[in-house]
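Here is an idea for our session: we take a single protein and study its fold together. To get us started, please write out a protein record for me. Start from the sequence, derive the backbone structure tokens from it, and show both lines together. Go ahead whenever you are ready, and we will take it from there:
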Amino acid sequence: MISMADGIHSVVKLNDGVAMPIFGLGTAWTNECADAVTYAIQQGYRMIDTAQRYGNEEDVGKGIARCGKDRKDLFIVTKQWHMGHDVCIQGLQRSLARLDMNYIDLFLIHGPREGRNVETYKAMLELKKQGLVRSVGVSNFNLHHLEGLRNAGLPTPSVNQIELHPWLQPREIIDYCKKHDITVMGYSPLVKSKMLKNQQICDLAKKYNKTPAQILIRWSVQHGYTTIPKSSKPNRIKENMQVFDWTITEDDMDFLDQNNVEEIRCAWDPINSDWLG
């Protein structure tokens, strides 16, 4: 388990030595994105997650520009959408321009959708050597995708970002990542609000005098997963970060782990796509 002594500023050391916050703001399809990013950083958030596919890199950049924090104190994640060596090089350059930055802290392949994963990943490694990217990883990769990179003789990704919450716990992927020192980053920890009225979660929220959202986020961080809850509302952004000065009991963690047997996927599902190289 990751030590959370530094609260929201706690970090995990990636397999390439880069320190990444264990908590951040997700921005997928977020309304009023620039305002949300500015407010989150002013409240103490240090990691912001975006992607080319979200169409909001420019707004994320605007929010960061007016937040009052030095760029070096922030950790910015974005993701490559289209695949291919030259496409990836050009994609990163466009992302940097939209974000108005000189480098990205973590650059991920958004999903193994189109094939050409190997050449895209090689391009990302070139960008890392050039100092345009600090760390490289993947998103929505299953075991056979991760093994595909491994069999190609490529360095192990630093991160695998996957949908992760009590109703979707891909244990084989998580175990593989732990074995190979790949940090697991979970997105959609709040299940897109679908389960915030779930009676089991509401009962736990009442027991701990917390909100259902805080119970779900605490479950993630207590497991040692990096997590990026999304919100554009200031009260929610502030509420979501207040999960570091209390704990869920071992029995209740086991309950969350084992009692929710119904699998619910609230995002897309490239996890089971074929490996196309």
